[in-house]
Amino acid sequence: MARLAKRATMADVAQYAGVTKTTVSRVLNNKGEISPETRERVLQAVEHLGYRRSWIARGLATDRTFLLGLIVPSIANEFFTDLVRGAENTAWENDYKILLCNTEGDWDREEGMFLFLKDIQADGIVVCAPRLPEDRLVPLVEQFQNVVVVNGQGIAWRELAGAIETDDAGGMRLAVNHLISSGRRHLTYLGGPPDARVSTERYHGFVHALQEAGYTSNPEWHTACHPADLKGGYEAVKRLSNVLSGIDGLVCFNDMVAAGAIRALTEMGIRVPDDIAITGCDDTQSATLVQPSLTTLQTPKEEIGALAVNMLLERISGQRHHETVVIEQRLIIRESAP
Fold first, then answer.
1. Would you state the pLDDT for residue 3?
2. CB atoms within 10 A of CB 47
3. Which of 96, 213, 309, 318 is deepest in the core (most CB within 10 A)?
4. Which residues contact 21 (CB under 8 A, 6 or more apart)?
5. pLDDT (0 to 100) of residue 14
6. b vs e for 265-293, b when ≥16 Cβ sit within 10 Å of the residue's Cβ?
7. Strand order, beta sheet including 187-191
C-alpha cells in the first residue's frame, strides 16, 4: 500500500527558501518588511513543496480559530439558503470558514447552538431570525460578544450586538398598495411563525397599509403558516375554503407560502389572478418556477449574508458598532398579481 507523502512544514519551506521560519510566517501573514525578492522566494517554496498552513497552529499563534457560526431557523427555507451563500463567500474571501447551525425554530436547540459555538471557541456568530425570547437571548449574546443578529426581535440585545433588519412593514405596504391599485379590496394575510420578528412586522405592515388606504380585513381570516415548504400555504387556503368567495387578494408571508396557496386554489378551481391575486415575499427561485409566476417583494438575501459577515469581522477586529442597518425591499410584479 502506498504511503501518504509527508506534509510539508514551515521549517521545510524556510530551509528550501534559505530563510528563517519567522520570515516565512511574515510572508504568509503579509506582515513586516520583506523584500520583493525574499517574498517571491518564499512563495515559490510554498508552491513547490505544496505547503499548507496548519489551522490549529495558526489559531494558537493568533488566538483565533477563524471559524464563524451561522445560526438559521431552517435550511429548507430558500431565504436562508441564499443568505448562507452570501455569508460563506464573504467569509472565504476573508480566510474564515462558516459552521452552519440549523435550529428548526426550536428554542432549546438555538440556545444549544450558541453554547456549542462558544465551546469550540468560534470567533463570532451570525444568528438569523432568532426565536429565543429576550430573557434567554441576551445572556447568550453577553457571553459571546462578537455577535450580529439578522431580523431579531426586541431591543435589550442591541447594545451588545450588531443588527441587520429588513424593512418588512414597508415591504408589506408596497404589496398592499399594489393590490389595491389593481382593484383588489378584500385582502387576507397568510403569515409565518408567530415567534419570529418578520412575522410580526409583516402582519403589522399589512394591517396598517390597509388602514391607510381606508380598508380593513377580517382578522379571523388571517392564519399562521409553516413557511419552509408548500404545505403551509396549501393548508392555510384549505382552512379558508368557506370564505374564499369573499376574498380577492392574498398577501403571503413568503414565496413558499404563496406557492402552496396557488396550488390549493388551482385544485379548488379558483383562478389566479382572475379570482384571487397573490403576492409573496423574498423573491426566491420558487417565485419564477410556480405557475402563474409570483409577484413578490425582493429581498437582497446574499447581500444580507455578506453584510452580516463583514459586520461581524469588524466586531472581531475591535470595532464594536451598535448601529442597526435596515434593508429595503422592492416589489417585483409578475403574473400572480399584475
1. 45
2. 10
3. 309
4. 10, 11, 14
5. 85
6. beeeebebbeebbbbbbbbbebbeebebe
7. 223-224, 187-191, 249-252, 277-282, 295-298, 330-332
Strands (E), 135-225: 147-150, 162-166, 187-191, 223-224
Distances (CA, A) of 6 to 47, 86, 177, 273: 15, 36, 67, 66
Question: Torsion angle, CA of 58/60/64/70, rounded to 10 degrees?
Answer: 80
Distance (Å, whole) CA 132 – CA 293: 35
The pLDDT value recorded for residue 194 is 84
For strand 249-252 and strand 324-327, is the pairing parallel, antiparallel, or unpaired? unpaired
The Cα–Cα gap between 173 and 266 comes to: 27
| SS3 state at 162 | strand
Nearest to 98 by CA among 127, 78, 76, 119: 127
**When comparing pLDDT for 301 and 1, which is higher?**
301
Residues 6+ apart with CB under 8 A from 198: 129, 151, 166, 168, 192, 253
What Å distances lie between residue 229 and 45, 106, 190, 253, 263, CA to CA? 52, 17, 14, 12, 12
Planar angle of CA 203, 164, 174, nearest 5 degrees: 40
Phi/psi of residue 43, nearest 5 degrees? -65, -35
pTM above 0.70, yes or no: yes
Is the pLDDT confidence value at 146 over 50?
A: yes
What confidence category does residue 318 fall into, taking pLDDT thresholds of 50, 70 and 90? confident
